[in-house]
Amino acid sequence: MRDFTYLRATDADAAAEALGPEASIIAGGTNLLDLMKLQIMTPERLVDITRIDGLSTIEEDGDGLRIGALVSNAALAADSRIRAGYPVLSRAILAGASGQIRNKATTGGNLLQRTRCPYFYDTAMACNKRAPGTGCAAQEGAGRMLAVFGTSEHCLAAHPSDMAVGLRVLGATVEVRAADGALRTLALDEFYTLPGDRPDIETTLAPDEIITAVVLPAPRAGSVQAYRKVRDRASYAFALVSVAAVVEMDGDRIGKVDLAFGGVGPRPWAGDDVAAALAGETPDEALFRRAAGALEPDRAPHPDAAFKLPLLRRTLVAVLREATGLAEASPGTDHAKDAA
Amino acid sequence: MTRTFRMDEAQPRLLDDTAQGVIGTPMDRPEGPLKVTGKAAYAADNLPEGLAHGALVRATITRGRIAGIDEDSIADLPGVIAVIRDDRFVRNPAQGMADEAPVQPGDRIDYHGQPIALVVGESYEAARDGALRLKVRYDEDAGAEVDPATASETEDGDPTESGDWDKAVAGATVSVDVTYTTPAQVSAAMEPHAAVAEWKADRLVLRGSQQMLRFNRNEIADSLGIDPEDVQILSPYIGGGFGSKLGIGSEAVSAAIAARELGRPVRVVMTRQTVFDAVLRRTETEQRVRFAADGEGRLLAIGHDDRISNLRDEEFAEPVSSASQFLYGADALLFRQTVARVHRTPAGSVRAPGEAVGMIAFESAMDELAEALEMCPVQLRLKNIPEKHPVTGQDFSARALAECLKTGADRFGWPGRTVPGSRREGDWMIGLGVASAARPNMLVKAAARVRLSAEGAVVETDMTDIGTGTYAIFAQIAAEMLGLPTGKVSVRLGDTDLPGASGSGGSFGASSSGSAVFLAARKIRETLAGKLGCSPEDLTLRDGIARGANHEAALSDLLDGELVEEAEIEEGKTAESHFSSGFGAHFAEVAVNAWTGEVRVRRMLGVFGIGRVLNEKTARSQAVGGMVWGVGSALHEDLVHDPRTGHVVTRDLANYHVAAHADIPADMQVEFLEERDDQANPMQSKGVGELGISGSGAAILNAIHNACGVRIRDLPATPDKLVAALEAATE
């Protein structure tokens, strides 16, 4: 770890003022400290935002909820309003990391965690995300955990978050605050950028902006919500693929459906087209297989990661079977209630 | 020095007659409270006055030479003291029991990740920063071969063969010819490799994390070019080894050189990434297993060929077909090995070298044969247990294989096993699997000293406790032999100034070094018998009281000062006349998800015959630990090398998956059969540390097949492989 200066911000203005290209925000530090020890990130200044008031609560916001950026992953997953109205978010959070990490990790920090691509993690390897312009050693390397959607010739890295997949399927927005106090609200697809030719840029956050909150829309009472994560071991591993689903039934037919996928893209990957193909249909395994079969990437995946497509399709079918009542629900599939 | 006892004939079962009643009991580790309260000082916990910190620098090319190290590149970094680079640096750790320096390559680089220099700083952070920033110039050799499958440089071992292969195969009704591949693995001990080197005048005091001190002292002395008498190694606590700390390595050699050069103590602790990069790995394997059998399931031919890899100049070759050569008998046998020379982290001993991977393929192929014969896999195994060692013709000593299989089948509900793919609970397909377990037992030269005084007894030996329970077991042996409560025995280990023991490796530590403790105590018993006025056979010692021939006396009254005896043991004629091995049987129940290919182990049972059990608790922990690694071997562990550079890609515990708690079922049963191995050693005990991993992975793979009809022959059995097979089956 390189030497750095440390500044404890007492309010958002002070934090914004201290930010800049050489600075990093630190909150839970569960990812940043590892990256600093390995010198993958070498900020000259750390701005500690954990003492800023007002960022650590979950409050009602119209019909939805406003989650402060510093709310811990553990507290968010355990919140009774989240468990009742947004169970897919609780399930997604609890599918990730460990109890100790979830106690420290924050909502904002989770969104901003870096990829776990092993070439990003090894400073002896070329990586456009870590060192722009050096190349991508993963392209011809070992690539089992790489993304299959949204990649570019410059970067194949996957976003590792489970929580963000839960947020994406719920249509959550991110509230960010600039140094001048201006607030912006961004959908997750506006918040995250695709790698293109600048994989080092991962979000649309300006250097002086900080995440202040994540806002959830009104709960979808009566919907079936599921988070299914498939990984190489039963706990403490990143997703090979994950499927988040919010399914509403309209009598015997499928009503509104939202889908998001983890482990397969540089950001939580939306399954809007698949979802659209299901709305209004009668639940049927052949239908689910057809819909899942439409999941095709624009670029050929790294050969090591190609298995993720059939695995994702099969996992999606399994989730839809349970969510629509074709199969008995297993743990991870819940009926949402009114959040209040 | 005392005369060495040679194990030339079976010894009286003295431990069945002694009266203290502590041997075999599930005694807690006496050092346990120190460990869980952080008071046990592991190597890196020693912080002598003036300590400097070293961080190893790795090579970032695969093959070539160091053209220059630009020390100026970090000279201005605050806290950096020096860059140490020395031709005595070692390329990789010494192989187990090498007893001499490992390869010292000078400026040559043989693999990506090789430690090539040490940056020393006033703090660990400064040293590590320097190590990451140091500029090294290389002369790179193109065309370094890193893929074992295609490596052009190979060496064929001498085949082991008997009988007429072609004739045996020609007479077969059913045959199996299958190829399995297993990935490389690493030990990933919890405690990273660490050393604190300090020179006291011209004597090196090394606090290290080492498994075999008697050998390690000679290895570091040879590495440094000094007299072994000028080295003391202290290694009282070791946070796991699994083979990775058998030999002296870069952390110790570089710390010793730096401490000498700088005139102050130096500590080197490997980062987790360096442990992956530069500590001996288990080789990947490609294994071809062939069986030919008659219609009744009698084996006619057994063949097991393997292709493994290692770096040039490493003699170690994973003995993949070790257990295949004695588990079952057949008219014709053929075992062949090819070693591919590649520029990857060198390979060496990792828990149960040979059996751990060899038995996965061999015992899975046995299951394939049972399927082809439409025969119960337990019955097939029982039918083919040979009378004598099929290769050497030796008699077996105590061998519980048949009883373990039968007992296990009974306990596990084996008769309830259904045909593949027929048992389902929701989306989960359920199956049962079985495999034999075997791991040869060894007796390795070892010495120990026992002191007895009115206060109690002290055991002294340079034997180590790598988390296996040596402190507890030696206290039990001495207490049992001398008639003392275990609390009256203190055990001193891990110091090369004490009598040289076997070290911890090959599952031989407790029995070999424990036998030295036993023999030293037996001599004390003889002296006590003389003092009491009875024969040693009539002597009974219990709770500090000696009785015999109508005499009775407190030990404190018999003793005139301290009685000190030292004993040394080595293998003898029984090792020639008899083949001694631990045996067992593994049973597993798994569930396979029909959609995602995830595998969950629902319960496991291991039944073992390991001779006399010295401590039921530590033995059980060893067996369970091995079975857990069997789960990891079958389902998770995969040391991935980059196809271009050969460097380790999965170089931390986030990317290299060992089994997590959630992967291990609560229903994890171990049963030891009552057994005495008279040919093994004077205690009639055998090794247990590696038996649990030997075969357990095969039981899981066989259960996967029984669950869903899929044979996974390329390990680990991750969801992608199962999904591919399930997809193919439904198309």
TrEMBL record, chain A:
MF (Gene Ontology): FAD binding; oxidoreductase activity
Domain FAD-binding PCMH-type: 1-221
Highest taxon above the source species: Bacteria
Keyword match Transmembrane: no
Keywords: FAD, Flavoprotein
Signal sequence interval, chain numbering: none
Pfam family, one: CO_deh_flav_C
PANTHER family: ALDEHYDE OXIDOREDUCTASE FAD-BINDING SUBUNIT PAOB, XANTHINE DEHYDROGENASE SUBUNIT C-RELATED
Name of the molecule in the record: Molybdopterin dehydrogenase
From TrEMBL, chain B:
SMART domains on file: Ald_Xan_dh_C (SM01008)
SUPFAM superfamilies reported for this sequence: CO dehydrogenase molybdoprotein N-domain-like, Molybdenum cofactor-binding domain
Compositional bias annotation for Acidic residues: 153-163
Alphabetized Pfam families for the sequence: Ald_Xan_dh_C, MoCoBD_1, MoCoBD_2
Region of interest called Disordered, as start-end residue ranges on this chain: 143-165
Superkingdom field: Bacteria
One Gene Ontology term of the molecular function aspect: oxidoreductase activity
Domain Aldehyde oxidase/xanthine dehydrogenase a/b hammerhead as annotated: residue spans: 37-142
Protein name: Xanthine dehydrogenase
Organism the protein comes from: Pseudooceanicola nanhaiensis
Higher taxonomy: Bacteria, Pseudomonadati, Pseudomonadota, Alphaproteobacteria, Rhodobacterales
